[in-house]
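@channel anyone free to eyeball this complex?
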Amino acid sequence: MTSRIEWLRGTLLATSLAFVVTSPVLAESPVLPNTVPAEFKVTDFLLDNGMEVVVIPDHRAPIVTHMVWYKIGSADEPPGKSGIAHFFEHLMFKATTNHAAGEFDRAVSDIGGSNNAFTSYDYTAFHETVAPSALELMMSFEADRMRNLILTDDVIKTERDVILEERRSRIDNSPEAVLDEEVDATLWQNQPYRIPVIGWMQEMQQLNRVDATAFYDKYYRPNNAVLIVAGDVEPDTVRALAEKTYGKVARGPDLPPRIRPVEPEQNTKRTVTLSDARVSVPSFSTQWVVPSYHSGKPGEAEALDLLAEILGGGNRSRLYQALVVQQGIASSAGAFFQGTMLDDTNFTVYGAPRGDARISDVEAAVDAEVVRIVKDGVTPSELEKAKDRYVRSMIFARDKQDSMANIYGSTLATGGNVQDVQQWTDRIRKVTADEVKAVAARYLVLARSTTGYLLPQQQAGN
Amino acid sequence: MTSRIEWLRGTLLATSLAFVVTSPVLAESPVLPNTVPAEFKVTDFLLDNGMEVVVIPDHRAPIVTHMVWYKIGSADEPPGKSGIAHFFEHLMFKATTNHAAGEFDRAVSDIGGSNNAFTSYDYTAFHETVAPSALELMMSFEADRMRNLILTDDVIKTERDVILEERRSRIDNSPEAVLDEEVDATLWQNQPYRIPVIGWMQEMQQLNRVDATAFYDKYYRPNNAVLIVAGDVEPDTVRALAEKTYGKVARGPDLPPRIRPVEPEQNTKRTVTLSDARVSVPSFSTQWVVPSYHSGKPGEAEALDLLAEILGGGNRSRLYQALVVQQGIASSAGAFFQGTMLDDTNFTVYGAPRGDARISDVEAAVDAEVVRIVKDGVTPSELEKAKDRYVRSMIFARDKQDSMANIYGSTLATGGNVQDVQQWTDRIRKVTADEVKAVAARYLVLARSTTGYLLPQQQAGN
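replying in thread with the prediction:
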């Protein structure tokens, strides 16, 4: 569990189930919206077929990051077809009518580039980092697989075995991952984020060519995609190349608005407990349903971001200072908020005991900090420091070209626009201490939370 | 919470959320499948338009029970449209092209009859009890509203206000009902039984004429309906009248198989707690996902029925004897199993403390009985007595004409057939003690259960 700022520094969300990443290499984790100084001169435009294009010039090094984000994630899947969005991430690496399977990967590695893909609740993204001279080739490959995949029963069966094995190794073999899945299924009573991105095993096993073809034809269209190009390239060049490649792909039928089932009011305290012999150190996390940047009222998500930062966003946070440094009862303690989501999202606090401390002691201490911030709010000083850390984090983010690409891509794929990214630090700067206290009081109600416990040994009972 | 046998005796499931009943009068609760002695001579046949007809002659009194069961329940609803099945139960009492709103109800009461309707996860049923001479009139009204409802925006808005008020009064005003909803949403991680039959408020508010018309056109068709006529009437008469009335309704498009999302493997212990000042006596219930008569392997549901009866099916059950009679710590304790469901269903144990006993004492004692029956199974003597009670319960069931109609209707609406009902006591008779122990051991694992707590006062925290 990492704080937002750690994400901005480029830390991988390696243990999170929110993102399912296809090898060959690990993808950068998508990061949260942030502002971009004027010198970045971000350009955005639409191709005639509806494909959105964002260009982020960055001439410090002769490389370019090329990403295509499809506005289709696991939360858009039809009932009973869980896993098909991630399955499609895999299928996109198979043969097309123009290229054999693996040809795209080899073309990237032959020129010393890297490529990857990832799937989340709200989007599926494909990306390559290469020399600028290879940008047209990347676009050509990417535009080709947008429409020309060959989906045979044989391809489906082979790749389905791969995702089933991926589920076995990444989820079913990991007590932490199994617990996370059931916590999600408990926290979310109605919203599709309760379904794992990788899919439920029994539904993945049934995915077939008919499902895949329908999914491909519906969602893999230029008018459902966002192209992000960051790096050593000019907007005019990107536009010309994009029109030459992606521009030749026919627009698909208009897609309906992404209106999904939403959460009912929650009224109960829920717990989810997994005891497993493979667990050595107990841990817990408590989650609440809160608004995201897209679903919240103006300023709410910004206040939640600062709340998470002050409460548990790193070594200077209240939770870390109280539990790890002062009381010495916890080996870890913190909080995070995943704001860049299309629908309501989760706010999490967590902790694990150290030495002889019991998990119940750590939970009580975390709860006490939650109650305190709800009751007394935050100080002007800690609010200013949190804001400063966010602004400084942008300096680190700008150092990584693909971080900027991820910020724009994830924002545009979850209902935001370029202005939302550019104005984000201004909005953060405007948050008041009262607003932070208000979101804490409104959302962090322990009697309406979900706590997951990962315990080392079998509990009593049977 | 009532045992299955109490259901068969005609007890209303008044507090269950599984059935949403429209006034004017309380419906009989649907009951579970059972066998019927030969003297009942049940006849079943299909009309040319695909409507299934079951006739259960019973000449002891000059009355007839007329029911139409539609194979459409809340678990068939599209995502985000929860409550529409129950909404339709209400809309069916509005005006048609041939009859004003209320005309059907008045026709029934004018002849001294009674009528009602109810909605569950798997079906929606409409029924009237009248003199045999009025059977054709009932069929005529029922066949009319199968296709001729006038669904205007005004009708939708008015009746939507009614169901919203029904939700407020029946669910939101009842801590027990609110808890039950969130327990269901927790127990079921994927299967649609996690969604309340009455619907989530925020989705009910959005139901509109377009949704309603599409739903009506898809599901309210003779080939998606089962007609049950029980009482003082002969099969030939029913056939002639049914052909004259229902037979004139055109067959609708074939419906796809009712294949819904199913549960993943469950791996955790979950709890759901609601503390409310309106609660005076604490209580709890623990549930497991288990197979139903339709989803289980042969014999599993029969074994679960006997397990529920022996463990907690009434005053002679282990839980009642141990907790209420011998230890004196509980005011109530029992178990039940809802077998007549299309998909996997739930097995429940429950209890409430008496006097100075704590709820944790009662839960520990219930858990101990669960562990004991898992470990040691049941005795031949208690198994035989449980079987005898089931067979005797049929004698009571036969005394109520509408019980038989409900048994056939609910079975046929959940994937069963007439033979399943007729052979049920034979199958119950064949269950062995080993089979009962096997289902207990397989399904009643406390580390994979969901427990709901209803507590009298606000817990600590905030």
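from a first look: Chain B touches chain A through 47 residues (CB under 8 Å).
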